[in-house]
Amino acid sequence: MTQPRLSVVIASTRPHRIGHHVADWVTSQVPDGFDLTVHDLREWAFPLLDEPEQPSTGIYTHEKTRAWSEAIRATDALVLVMPEYNRGYNAALKNAIDYLYAEWEGLPVGCVGYGWYGASYAKEALRQTLERVKMTVVDGPGLVFEKTLGQDGEVRAGAEDETALAAMFAELDASARTPLDR
């Protein structure tokens, strides 16, 4: 049996971000049994959605969109490492989601948020979008500035956060897409 393919997406694209530190913590906790890939939205550098056709058609003109489609189709489970900005999730993440449509259907996704309130507001807002594109949303931990996360990106997660992360991975593993689902 093949290992489920897990993709971790670093959602923040800001010049002085800390999302990559949180992603390092997340990826260091991935249990054996997953084939891991990390996607950094800053490296993908998507312009605001510029495809001439609606994403629901699956007709992609730009090479970057076709590559993003292939990357997501090659994923069996997804983790979004996401900041909370002004009680919402960031525009780069929304844009990356909006580039595709059918690729998201049935894909289990866990959200690891970070911010002053553990990204609770952003995760709740994002849930609506993820459910709209028919993803299966799995609960994930939220790191809180000055408690479980330093503003410099130092992760200070405790046992409760690690337990929540482990539970998220277990649920992603149990609901991961199989070759027949793709």
From TrEMBL:
Any one Gene Ontology molecular-function term assigned to this protein's record: FMN binding
One CC-aspect GO term: cytosol
Domain NADPH-dependent FMN reductase-like stretches: 5-146
InterPro entries reported for this sequence: Flavoprotein-like_sf, FMN_Rdtase-like_dom, NAD(P)H-dep_reductase
Protein name: NAD(P)H-dependent oxidoreductase
Source superkingdom: Bacteria
